[in-house]
Design brief:
Length: 312
Amino acid sequence: MTKAPPRLPVLVVDDSPFSRKLLEHALSGDSYSLLLAENANEALQLFKEHRPSIVITDWMLPDCSGPELCQRIRAESPDSYTYVILLTSMTEKEDIVKGLSSGADDYLTKPFDRGELLARIGVGKRIIDLHREIDAKNKLLEEMAHTDSLTGLPNRRAIEEWAGRQLRGAARHGYSLWVVHADLDSFKIINDSHGHAAGDEVLRGFATILKENTRASDISGRMGGDEFLVVLTHVQQDQIQLIVERLRARFAAKKFSFGGEGISVTVSLGACGFQGKQPPEFSYLVRQADQALYCAKRAGRNQVKIELFSPS
């Protein structure tokens, strides 16, 4: 059984019961879900609650004009498009231009023809569908611009944008923020010995561990190559070693199989934290974490090194 398409929500605004009834009759059927309002205030309340795709409003309302209502609707929903049709008995071009200049998309003169009304709503529906398609594509492009395609983790750009906001919040509210820099040990040997497909599998394996161990209040991502970054908030200094050590141990315990050979891969991690009123640049914390990572590498790899909180 074919599922019926969803009904298009339409808000009708008119203080005349007769006009509302005419519009209700004209739009009766399975295609539209009608909301009826007698004035602008009632219309705005219904708009906030239901976010209709199309608004049909009379020009003359008890508490404001149709063009004014159109402007208020535009201000109420800057992130989504609503198609607005003005109903008017005025036919002067100056009035029509004024209505369209206020942000209305179309107008219809009274008394209206039902066929013309449905045709104009059809135009509105096509435009609404186009806006939604564009919004969906823009959202996808935005996600792609902030996502590492191999691992599905946030990329460097996404981490830096998120961390910049969190640093300001940490300074304002007094909570801690840690930057953890992770680098897979001897990763080049894996690529050289088993091929780049094997290297990709290892990268995805570490990414999975990061995803499974990253709280909603934190972020983890891939910086590029075999380098990853984790930003943790609300973690005390006496807890950070245990948290980062857990990541190291879980990855070291993971087994990979390439060409019938089972291998383990390790990771070295360095961390630097901040807590205070004057936050440093995020790049400074990354550099400090990188220095701690370098110390872990020099100490023999497969280790965790922690820098003390930066001065505030």
